Structures are given as structure tokens and as C-alpha cells.
Amino acid sequence: MSPHPPRNLALGLVLGILAGFGAAVVKHLLDTKLRTKEDVEGMTNAVVLGGIPYDDDASKHPLIIQADPHAGRAEAFRSLRTNLQFVDATEHPRVIVVTSSIAGEGKSTTTANLALAMAESGANVCVVEGDLRRPRLLAYLGLEGSVGLTDVLIGRYELDDVLQPFGAHSLTVLGAGATPPNPSELLGSTAMRDVLDELRRRFDFVLIDGAPVLPVTDSTVLTRLTDGAIVVAGSGVVTKDQFEHALETFQTVNGVVLGVVLNRVPRQNRGAYYDYRYEYRPEGAVSSRRTKTGRRRKNEDDATRPRRDLVGS
């Protein structure tokens, strides 16, 4: 039988395409990670409050609102701030826990940037380091906190003794303080309720950076003392099962989930929520990030530059 090169070539191309398509289908079916807005909406009735784009350099400038105010990622946090105002027009949630299913999804940087976005709009904001086991918030903000919330809860200090102002806007920080042996008990105590009541009286908004939901019960305990929780979901980080389990945990304690923030969204993934995010800088404005050569641009403020050695909290 004589060979038929054109036919064989065509057959090879068809088989190659089918093999590639089959591999893509199998990969999709085996992918257990939560990645897109559609993934979130298929698992919960909670509103998707916003999507925060992935940034390779996020660990170098975690407070993007401050480091590069005109960046697309900074604008995403401002959109989150705006969307949060419409979550519950009747109840107006003001004391809010920000948490995640597992560690590494970006709850602490989300809390810090959302607080900064609220403060720059004129709101009087207090941000609380409520993850008593692995506090990260003060380090991101470049603050020291040998005393804080736990010291107030056990009666060692008054609230005014441990509150710290931050930056030029109306933002106040309450650090975690010393790590206690019983975080869940302290966070669910009458003393904690009293602290939150006092903060509610003093501030327009109180944001609490809570511990991840699945490893410990701290954030679900806090949810019962607050107006609800924002759940940060790291795209490509958390699995769908983990996310679903976290939502079930809130249901078990009758906790209110105000909404979900999809974090680390790939910029090129149009189905993942980032399809309309872009930078819109005023004429003449430049980025305050470092250039590719590692040199910092002239607009960066050394006095308020945060710690850059922490990643993914």
C-alpha cells in the first residue's frame, strides 16, 4: 500500500487537536480550586462584592491604596468599599469581620486596604487585629503592638491606652496584643462585646481582621457579635470544598455572610471578574512602585512605607 502523506498529516492534526481538547477537559474536571466569580456564585447566594487582581509584587507593597493610589488594584479596593455600602441598605453593617476559609487567601491585606479606602473617603474607621493566633495586620501597617486587644479584654489596659492612629486619614488601629491561651473564649466573651459596642459608638466603621474559618472557630464566634462577615476567597488558592465548608460553618452558628471578595484574580482571565479593571491615572501621575531595575520612583513616601516581608495573609 502506498503512503498518503496529505491524508496522514490531516489525520495527525485531527488526532492532535482531539488529544489536546481531551486533556483540557480532563484538567478542568480534575481542577478542584475555586477560581472565578461564576464558581462563587454557583456555591452561595452571598453577593460577590468585588474582585482584587493578582499582583506579582503584592508582597512588596501590600498597602496598594497608599503605595500606588492610581493602580488598578487600588481602584478595585475602592470599588469594594463602594459595593459594601449597598449590601444591606436597611441595616447598614458597620462592624464587620473579614475572614477566609484557610490561611494565605489575602484576608489581612484586604482588611487593611479596605480600611484605608474607607478612611480616605472621609469615614472614621477602626481596624482591629482580631486574628489573635497569627496577627499580621500591625506588621503590614508598620506599627508596633506589644499591648492591644487582649490586654483590654483581661482588664490590664483601657481601650484608649492601646488605640493607635495611622496615616493622614481618620484611621485608628487596635492591635492584637499578647497571644492568649484561649483566643476563642476571649473573642466570644462579654468583655469583647463591650469593646465592640464602644468601638461602634466611636467609629463609622469597625473592620476586624479575623482568623481563617476552617482551622479555628474564632471568626465564627466574632460573627455573632458583629453585623456580619466578608469572606475573602483566594482564586486558585482555596478549593471549592474548603470554601463550601467555610460557608456551612457560618450557617451552623447563624452567622451572616455579607458577601465574598474574590482575591488574586488573574488579569488575563476575563471570566474571573477582572475583565473591566484598569488603571486610570491623572495626567503626569506616575506609579510609586519600584521599577524593574529595583529603583523606587520618586513619589513613594518613606515615612509611611509599610513592611514588605509578609505574604498572603
Automatic annotation (TrEMBL):
Compositional bias of kind Basic and acidic residues: 298-313
Catalytic activity: L-tyrosyl-[protein] + ATP = O-phospho-L-tyrosyl-[protein] + ADP + H(+)
Keywords for this protein: ATP-binding, Kinase, Nucleotide-binding, Transferase, Tyrosine-protein kinase
CDD domains in alphabetical order: BY-kinase
Molecular function via GO: ATP binding; identical protein binding; non-membrane spanning protein tyrosine kinase activity
Domain of life: Bacteria
Region Disordered, residue ranges: 285-313
Name of the top EC class for this enzyme: transferase
Entry-linked Pfam families: ParA
Record's GO cellular component terms: plasma membrane
Enzyme Commission identifier(s): 2.7.10.2
Keyword Cell membrane on entry: no
Record carries keyword Kinase: yes
Xref: InterPro entries: Bact_polysacc_biosynth/exp, P-loop_NTPase, Wzc-like_C, YlxH/NBP35
SUPFAM superfamilies hit by this protein: P-loop containing nucleoside triphosphate hydrolases
Family: Belongs to the CpsD/CapB family.
Cross-referenced PANTHER family: FERRIC ENTEROBACTIN TRANSPORT PROTEIN FEPE, TYROSINE-PROTEIN KINASE
Protein name (record): non-specific protein-tyrosine kinase
Species of origin: Knoellia aerolata DSM 18566
